[in-house]
Amino acid sequence: WGGFGHITVAYIASNFVSDSTTSYLQALLRNDTGDYLAGVATWADSIRYTKWGRFTSGFHFIDAHDNPPSYCGVDYDRDCKKEAGCVVSALQNYTSQLLDTELPLWRRAQAAKFVIHFVGDIHQPLHTEDVARGGNGIHVTFEGKELNLHHVWDTSIAEKLVGGIHRKPYPFAKKWAGELTEEIKSGKYAAESKARWLRGTNITDPIATALGWAVEGNALVCTTVLPDGAEAIGGQELGTDYYEKAAPVVEEQVAKAGYRLAAWLDLVISSLK
Ligand code: DCM
Ligand code: DCM
Ligand code: DCM
Ligand code: ZN
Ligand code: ZN
Q1: What's the pTM?
Q2: DSSP per residue over the chain, as a string?
Q3: Does 115 contact ligand 1 (Cβ within 6 A)?
Q4: How many A from CA of 29 to the centre of ligand 1?
Q5: Each residue of 214-253: pLDDT tens digit?
Q6: Is the ipTM of this complex over 0.90?
Q7: Ligand 1: does its nearest atom lie under 6 Å from the Cβ of 8?
């Protein structure tokens, strides 16, 4: 996701974590405001092109060798690059660093920041997709603007959903997170979705847990992102029909990522004591 998506995911998570998780992470991240998660949600993107952070650039996605729309699927051994890693191995690695109380606090704070970011990214369908580098090479127009498909899914759809963010991601994200939090607590996700979202979550098996999240996002590439394949969409305007199917998917993936991030952080922090 772009910054707006990541910040929204973090605000949703801060609405659901337990009080002890809040205190623990506020201390670790040295921020005792309500923005302690939101404030670090985009940090991983800010370091990925720096010299020291270059090793993390492959951690934001997994390039599933699928063939949308006829075949979707993610296979850890097939798709997670052995040298560069992927978002699934990164979540496992940084979760274990966050759990490792032998590590210096700055390393564990850094691990927390990676976990907060990567739980977001794994829920962006095109971050689990190999075709044209996750859609970066598919040129489209959206509301008349020339963009690539990856950018549309990272940023444009979410921003249109909330009526634009007017260069103020934090207040707009906080508001959207508040709305999605209500949908989870008592609205459209309350009855069935949120219980289903946490099925398969296993702190003793981060690879299987994260792979489950990736498989689910990747399936959306076949149904919603590229329902007629990559060839059909290239050079096209993504009109109202496309947007109206995509927007609820973006909304649910963001809500789900925030709710799962809260559950994951609770599991990590509670297992430390
Ligand atoms: N931090 C870190 N490693 C350091 C120093 C700080 O991971 N060597 C973390 C703690 C905060 C965030 O970075 O989450 C911001 O730190 P600062 O307040 O130093 O900018
Ligand atoms: N950081 C790091 N190693 C570096 C530079 C930065 O681990 N060589 C981390 C420490 C903080 C985060 O980046 O977690 C933010 O650092 P800063 O406040 O220096 O930008
Ligand atoms: N990306 C992806 N899959 C890839 C390559 C990149 O999901 N195989 C993502 C990471 C960024 C965006 O696409 O969100 C742009 O990446 P880059 O700047 O590395 O092209
Ligand atoms: Zn992206
Ligand atoms: Zn990212």
Answers
A1: 0.90
A2: --HHHHHHHHHHHHHHS-HHHHHHHHHHTT--STTTTGGGTTHHHHHTTSTTTGGGGGGG------BTTTB----HHHHSBTTTB-HHHHHHHHHHHHH-TTS-HHHHHHHHHHHHHHHHHTTSGGGG--THHHHTT-EEEETTEEEEHHHIIIIIHHHHHTT--TT-HHHHHHHHHHHHHHHHHTSTTTTTHHHHHHTT--TT-HHHHHHHHHHHHHHHIIIIISTT-HHHHTT-B--HHHHHHHHHHHHHHHHHHHHHHHHHHHHHHHTT-
A3: no
A4: 7
A5: 999 999 999 999 999 999 999 999 999 999 999 999 999 9
A6: no
A7: no
